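Exercise: predict the fold of this chain.
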Amino acid sequence: TDRNQQRGGRWPWRRGDASMSGLVLKLGPHERVLVNGAVIENGDRRSRLSILTPNANILRLRDAIRPGEANTPVRRVCYIAQLVLSGDAVTEEARGQLLRGIEQLSQALRDDDSRDQLKQASDAVLEGDYYRALKRLRSLLPREARLLGADMARA
């Protein structure tokens, strides 16, 4: 059980039987985040933002992949998800590109954990949750770096 329910509190976003889970962003001092196309900058102290709007497009700018950095398979797929979140891509077109990219990654990343992350990313894309898809895809970046490093060492 969660602490809010233990105290007898109610979630502010519950209405009848339908509920949605809110996203809580923990921001460092002066950290910037993109929310539905608007850049928001935190103040001098750490803070938490609760995003209650369903399907809000959110991107931490510190985590953003710049166009020139989309130079590996996982980074390219992450970049497409990021373009949706920033409002710089047509969602319908990006959805197909993301699903094709995830399928291609699943042919290269065959371990159970990678496949689980890719399945979760694919499910998130199908549900229109591009923030969650990007989060799952980003979890593959360290593994990709290790694999590419091993390939470079063999060459």
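Check your answer against the key: The helical segments are 3-6, 73-86, 91-108, 112-126, 130-138, 141-154.
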